[in-house]
């Protein structure tokens, strides 16, 4: 089993019974123990849960995922999967998964969506008074402190892993200066601000990376890699951010859907002029009429009992 390609192993797990999953886990652990006895012993339960999580059996996969997420599991279920008693520390799960993945290759651990939490903290701070501290502020502070502490710990517990934080500059400044991350901020490299697209080749590569997986999933062979965005379209995108470029691409896709036909785009600036689409008043009025009818006919008083 350890010498098989990963996709074959995952496919075998999907159809394996519980007994077979435990056998696969044992064979995998034996192979790992031969080369890494200390780490395998330390992380054996994380690896067992990771293997069981790929089962097609909803109960087995759900229990394994719950264990990895730190939720308490009944002792009979733990014994069934061969796992240690829970709860366990989430940082130990991260350490074990990182080590397990590092055997195959280096990994990137990307963290996103920190900005809304910091924004909520700033809003709550503005509402704070000397007499009272809003509950929202306490919750936001607790979350930020735990995130900051976790970021500092990731550097110590991960193996062959690049920890990558994607956020606004103001968010990182807050974490590095005001939260628990401050003492460990020097462990991270200085922030690297994203710059605008400066070449057509970079823009084309960005779009190609976005559309290629969709083409492969649909088993579609496009006329060219960035279809329906022609090479000439990428000559006038200097100064745009990657997000702005992808929004223009999405706008063109929506335009094609409305027209019921795919149009090749030669210049993004031309399509940008069509940001406002006239509303079909007749269709809108029909929809409004149906909505009012359904609203009159809806029987909702029983929901209030």
| Helix content estimate | 55-70%
* Overall form: extended
Low-confidence stretches: 270-279
Number of helical segments with 4 or more residues: 13
- Sheet with most strands: 2 strands, parallel
Structural class, by secondary structure, is: mainly alpha
> What fraction of residues sit in β-strands?
under 5%
- Could you tell me the mean pLDDT? 82
Order of helices and strands: HHHHHHEHHEHHHHH
What is the distance, rounded to the nearest whole angstrom, between the alpha carbons of the first and last residues?
A: 59 Å
Strand order of the largest sheet: 1-2
Q: Give the beta-strand count.
A: 2
In the residues, how many domains can be counted?
3
The radius of gyration is 26 Å
Highlighted features:
single chain, mainly alpha, 2 strands
How would you characterize this protein structure?
The protein is mainly α and 305 residues long. It folds into 3 domains: 6-102, no CATH class; 107-187, no CATH class; 195-299, no CATH class. It contains 13 helices and 2 strands; from the N terminus they run H-H-H-H-H-H-E-H-H-E-H-H-H-H-H. It has helices spanning 6-14, 18-35, 37-52, 58-68, 75-81, 90-102, 115-126, 135-157, 169-177, 200-217, 242-259, 268-272, 281-297; strands at residues 107-111, 161-165. Helix 2 (18-35) packs antiparallel against helix 3, helix 3 (37-52) packs across helix 6 and helix 6 (90-102) runs parallel beside helix 8. The chain is extended. It starts with 5 loop residues before the first helix and ends in an 8-residue tail after the last helix.
